[in-house]
Design goal:
By secondary structure, the protein is mainly α. The protein contains three helices and two strands, in the order H-E-E-H-H. The protein has one domain (about 1-84). A two-stranded antiparallel sheet has the order 1-2. Helix 1 packs antiparallel against helix 2 and helix 1 (about 1-25) runs antiparallel to helix 3.
C-alpha cells in the first residue's frame, strides 16, 4: 500500500508538471492560474482515483494468484518423493 501511495504521488506530481508546462507562457514568463485550475481539475482530481482503484484491483488479483501458486508449489513439494 505504501508503494501504491508513493506511485500515486509521483503520478500527481507528473501531471502537475505537465499542467505547469501547458499553462506557462515563456513569452510573458507567467503562468495562467485559470488554465492551471482547469488542467488540475481535468487531469489530476478525476483521473487518479480511477487509476488507483484499478491498480488496487490488479494488486489484489496478483496477490491472489501468488497465493494460489504458493499453494500449488507446496503441494508439489509435499508430493515429491525426493523430499521424504
Amino acid at each position: 500500500m505504501e508503494q501504491q501511495a508513493s506511485n500515486k504521488e509521483k503520478g500527481i506530481e507528473f501531471r502537475y508538471n505537465q499542467c505547469n508546462q501547458k499553462c506557462h507562457s515563456y513569452k510573458t514568463k507567467r503562468t495562467d492560474q485559470e488554465c492551471l485550475d482547469k488542467c488540475y481539475e481535468k487531469y489530476v482530481s478525476k483521473l487518479y482515483p480511477q487509476i488507483s482503484e484499478k491498480l488496487l484491483a490488479s494488486e489484489n488479483n496478483l496477490y491472489d494468484e501468488s497465493e494460489k501458486l504458493l499453494l500449488i508449489a507446496n503441494e508439489i513439494h509435499n508430493q515429491d518423493a525426493m523430499f521424504f
